C-alpha cells in the first residue's frame, strides 16, 4: 500500500458495502454515480487491492473491502462521538447569534426582548438584520428569523409564537368627512390576503399612495386623511392613530420563530430561542398582537 488511507477512502468503502451498489453509495454521499466509480477505481489502483467484485445486482466486498469497511464503521463512530461531545461542551451561552426580523416587529416587540437578552446573557453577541426580505436560513444568511408567514418551510425548525391581528386605522386628527382614501403596500411586498381584502372592499380603486414597508405606511398615515391596514400591535401603540372597527379575521397571520436545524442544540441558540418564546408568551405581548390591548381607543 503506497499511500495511507484517509477518512474519505474508508467512508467510500463503507457506503458501497452498506448500499450494495455504486448508485446507492452515491445517494448516501451526495455525489454522482460517476464520481463514486472514479474514486473506487483510483482507490483500488492506489492500494493495489481489489476491494469489490461486480455481481448480478450490485457490488460485493472482497476480504480487503470488508476489512476497510469495518475500519470505516469504527472511524464513523469516533467522528460522531467527537461531534456529540463538541456540541455537549457548548454549555455556556456565548458566541454570536444572527437574527433577522422585520422593521415593525423589531420596533414594536423584539427590541425590548433583545435588551433583556443582553442583560441575561452578556457573552452572547447579537447581530440583527432588519429586513422585510426573506433571508435564506439554509444558506446561513441568518441563524434564526421571526417572520409572519402562513406556512413555515419544512427544512427549518419552526416555533409558532402568536397570531398577529390587523385592523384599519386613521390619523386621530383626520377629517372624517373627507372622501375616504387608502394607503397600501406596493407590488414589491407579497401579502395576497391584504390585496384580496382591499379588492373586495373597493379600496384598491381609492389607493393612490403605496409604500414598500408597513412602518412607512404608518408614518404616511399620521399625515393623511386616508385609511390603512396595520398590525394591531403597531397601530394601537401609536397615540396619533385611531383604530376603525375590530381586527379583520381574514388577515390574521401566524408569527413564527425559524431556526436552522443544525443549530437547535447549540446553547446560545437555545438561550435566545427560549427568551424570545417566553417574551411572546407574556400577557401584555399577547394582547398587543391580538389587538385587545387598546380596545378603548377604537373609533366607530
UniProtKB/TrEMBL annotation:
Q: Name one GO molecular function term.
A: sequence-specific DNA binding
The domain of life for this entry's organism is: Bacteria
Sorted keywords for this record are: DNA-binding, Transcription, Transcription regulation
The UniProt family comment states: Belongs to the LysR transcriptional regulatory family.
The reply on keyword Transcription is yes
GO BP term, example = DNA-templated transcription
Q: What is this protein called?
A: LysR family transcriptional regulator
- Pfam families, from UniProt? HTH_1, LysR_substrate
HTH lysR-type domain residues = 5-62
Under the heading PANTHER family, the entry gives: HTH-TYPE TRANSCRIPTIONAL REGULATOR (PTHR30537), TRANSCRIPTIONAL REGULATORY PROTEIN (PTHR30537:SF3)
Amino acid at each position: 500500500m503506497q499511500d495511507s488511507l484517509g477518512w474519505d477512502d474508508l467512508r467510500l468503502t463503507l457506503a458501497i458495502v452498506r448500499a450494495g451498489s455504486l448508485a446507492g453509495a452515491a445517494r448516501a454521499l451526495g455525489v454522482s454515480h460517476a464520481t463514486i466509480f472514479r474514486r473506487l477505481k483510483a482507490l483500488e489502483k492506489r492500494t493495489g487491492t481489489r476491494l469489490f467484485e461486480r455481481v448480478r445486482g450490485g457490488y460485493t466486498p472482497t476480504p480487503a473491502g470488508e476489512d476497510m469497511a469495518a475500519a470505516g464503521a469504527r472511524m464513523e463512530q469516533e467522528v460522531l462521538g467527537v461531534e456529540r461531545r463538541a456540541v455537549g461542551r457548548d454549555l455556556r451561552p456565548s458566541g454570536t447569534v444572527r437574527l433577522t426580523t422585520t422593521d415593525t416587529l423589531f420596533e414594536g416587540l423584539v427590541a425590548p426582548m433583545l435588551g433583556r437578552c443582553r442583560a441575561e446573557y452578556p457573552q452572547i453577541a447579537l447581530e440583527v438584520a432588519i429586513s422585510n426580505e426573506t433571508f435564506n436560513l439554509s444558506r446561513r444568511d441568518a441563524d434564526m428569523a421571526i417572520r409572519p408567514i402562513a406556512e413555515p418551510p419544512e427544512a427549518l425548525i419552526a416555533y409558532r409564537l402568536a397570531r398577529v391581528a390587523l385592523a384599519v386605522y386613521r390619523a386621530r386628527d383626520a377629517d372624517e368627512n373627507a372622501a375616504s382614501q387608502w394607503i397600501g403596500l406596493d407590488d414589491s411586498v407579497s401579502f395576497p390576503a391584504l390585496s384580496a381584502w382591499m379588492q373586495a372592499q373597493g379600496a384598491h380603486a381609492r389607493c393612490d399612495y403605496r409604500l414598500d414597508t408597513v412602518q412607512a405606511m404608518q408614518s404616511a398615515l399620521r399625515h393623511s386623511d386616508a385609511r390603512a391596514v396595520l398590525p394591531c400591535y403597531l397601530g394601537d401603540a401609536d397615540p396619533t392613530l385611531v383604530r376603525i372597527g375590530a381586527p379583520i379575521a381574514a388577515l390574521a397571520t401566524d408569527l413564527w420563530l425559524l431556526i436552522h436545524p443544525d443549530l437547535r442544540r447549540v446553547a446560545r441558540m437555545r438561550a435566545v430561542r427560549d427568551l424570545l418564546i417566553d417574551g411572546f408568551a407574556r400577557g401584555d405581548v399577547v394582547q398587543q398582537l391580538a389587538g385587545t390591548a387598546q380596545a378603548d381607543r377604537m373609533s366607530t
